[in-house]
Every structure is written in C-alpha cells, then in structure tokens.
Amino acid sequence: MTTSPTTTATAAGASSATAASSKAATTTTTTTDAAAATSYELPWVEKYRPQRLDDVVGNRATIERLKAIQHDGNCPHLLISGLPGIGKTTSVHCLAHALLGDAYREGVLELNASDERGIDVVRNKIKTFAQKKVSLPPGRHKIIILDEADSMTPGAQQALRRTMEIYSSTTRFAFACNQSSKIIEPIQSRCAILRFAKVRDEEILKRLLEICEMEGVEYNDEGLAAIIFTTEGDMRQAINNLQSTYTGLGFVNQENVFKVCDQPHPHLVRAILESCRAADIDAAMDRLDEIWSKGYSAVDIVTTLFRVAKTLDSLSEAVKLDFIREIGWTHIKVLEGVSTNVQLGGLLARLCRLNMNAKLFEL
Ligand SMILES: Nc1ncnc2c1ncn2[C@@H]1O[C@H](COP(=O)(O)OP(=O)(O)OP(=O)(O)O)[C@@H](O)[C@H]1O
Ligand SMILES: [Mg+2]
C-alpha cells in the first residue's frame, strides 16, 4: 500500500516544523542531539494518527466497507471490535470526519472509558446530545462514538437499547471495543459488526519505513524486524517501540530494540529450542536459568518460546507442531497460576523427549 498524499503532506509538514524548531534550538546535530531534540515532541502514534480512511493500514476489506458507508452517507449503527492498537478508534474518527466535515465538532459526541458512562450518563448526556439540533450536511446524522464500549456496565448498555431506536432518525452510534462478547446481544443485533484483525507484519513494516523516513530515524533491517517481532500485529506498539528505541538509544538495531522493549532475547530462546532439538537437557536448562535470572516472568518466556518455535526453520514441520503443542499446554498452566521455573523445566524436558528414541521410555 502506498501512503496517501494527505498523510505524507501532514506528516512531512509536522516533521519539517519539528526540524525547523530543533534547528533554531541547536546548531550542531550529532545523533544523540537529534534524538534528544525529538524527545519533547508529540508521541509518534498521535503525530501519525491517520486522518482519512485511506491512510489506515491493513484490514483492507473492513476499511472498504467503511469507505462504502462514507460514500453512501447513510451510516448504520456500527460495532467495531478487535485487539488493541490496530486502528479501531482511528477508523471511527476518520469516518466521522469524512461524513460530517466541518460539522464534526458539533455533530460528534465521544465518550470513552475515561468518562463516566453509567446509566445516568446514558439517560442525560447521550439523550441531551441526541435531542440537540445541529446543522449537518444534508442526509447526514449526528454520531455518538462510544469507545472502549466493552467497559460499559451491562446496565448502561441496556439503557441504550431504546435510546438507539428512538433517536435513530437523527443519531447514529459507533461502538469500538476489544471483546465484542462483552457487548450485550440486543446492541449487537442493532449494529453492523466490523471485525478488525491484527495488522500484518509487512504492513507494519511499510508504515515503520515511512515513519523512519519522515523522522530521519537511523535503523538497520534487523532492528525493524525485531520491532515487528516484539509487537505481534499491534501497530501502536510498533510505532511506540520505534520511537522509544530511537529517542533512547539513537539507532534502531536488534540489540537496542530488545534493550528497550525488555523481552527475552530471541537468540537465547532459539538456543534453548536448539538444545531441546538436540535432546541436550543440561544445555537447555542452563540457558533457561540464564534468562530466568534476568528476571523475566514465565509468561514472557513461554510466549517468546512460542513465537520463536513458530519460525524456527531447523525444525521439521512435524516436530514444530509437537513443540508448539507442548508450549501451548505449558502456556495454559502458566496462566492458571503455576508460573515457576520448574514448570518451564518440565516443558524443556518434554521437548527433549520428543527428540529422543521413544524406546528409551518403554517400561
Ligand atoms: N491500521 C493502522 N494504520 C495506521 N496507524 C495505526 C493503525 N492502527 C493503529 N495505528 C496507530 O496506533 C495509534 C492507535 O490506534 P487506535 O487508537 O486506532 O487503536 P485502537 O484499535 O482503537 O486500540 P484500543 O483497542 O487500545 O483502543 C494511532 O494513533 C496510529 O498512530
Ligand atoms: Mg481505541
């Protein structure tokens, strides 16, 4: 996907403004100075928040549906669900901007988890807004955005049912949430449901490269790959990690990324898995102890084991599947509360066993 001219223009405008202000402040720019100069500006996640649906990366099919609504102008009630940091709130605001234009300020009421959203608010604030007269472009409706709607109490959600119907000639509701199951059925049935999936790695990479270029970030390919490894489809975290690494350490390479993101280094984790493949339990345990002594939790280690195992080419397909199954079982046990070193040691023993002659274990 290519960046649309608007994003490039806005972002380029923003970065040239930054460049101008930092030039005024300092005349000599070494890498550290450059990093220091950027440390007080807007977080990049906000600076590069897409302004138009075309600028939202990934989830093409869902974005196309939103664009169809934008062209049609008649917005149904919407429920957008998906994991954190993948563009839900951004997309709802882009749609509202596109539909209402200059009337956006007057015509949109946003309530998120930081606002009080109990039954009283639904009764008063939402109803008052729904009754308010606002001049909008012809054929358009006021929009009430209920962000992080899964944190609304069921009582408050119940109170919305009739409100949504009574004011539907003038007002549309857009819900955004992480878990659609926490939205009561009657509201789900009143909405067009859109699901956002994780952003794909290559799409995140493309966006990171654009930001690197606009911000003049110094990086190498392994550094960006490490950022993508640590974020697992969460665009917000990818951009935040890029900014933290660059502003903190001045160069985005693998070493710096893992220092800043503080996750078990995949090289060490890979070494554990390689030792298990060679059925060398002593070496595997030594490496596990090394990671454990750095203070990582069992969840950190087990999730990194999974991510590395998934991409470990030295394992045959069958062994890889066995490894992933064992890691999955251990993940369940860790989440159930048994998150000790012994639990992880047990996992490594089972992984080693998979690579040993089964006859050795016959009684
Ligand atoms: N698909 C995307 N394309 C471009 N930028 C994105 C995308 N998703 C997230 N971002 C970046 O991450 C920031 C946060 O995105 P957004 O607020 O839309 O996340 P969200 O899906 O609403 O997450 P949450 O569930 O935590 O509310 C945006 O400001 C933007 O910089
Ligand atoms: Mg959001």
Automatic annotation (TrEMBL):
The keyword Cytoplasm appears for this protein: no
Subcellular location, record wording: Nucleus
Principal subcellular localisation of the protein: nucleus
GO molecular function, one term: DNA clamp loader activity
GO CC terms: Ctf18 RFC-like complex; DNA replication factor C complex; Elg1 RFC-like complex; Rad17 RFC-like complex
GO BP terms, alphabetized: DNA repair; DNA strand elongation involved in DNA replication
Region (Disordered): 1-32
Domain AAA+ ATPase as annotated: residue spans: 74-206
Keywords: ATP-binding, DNA replication, Nucleotide-binding, Nucleus
Family: Belongs to the activator 1 small subunits family.
Protein name per its UniProtKB record: Replication factor C subunit 4
Species, as recorded: Pseudozyma flocculosa
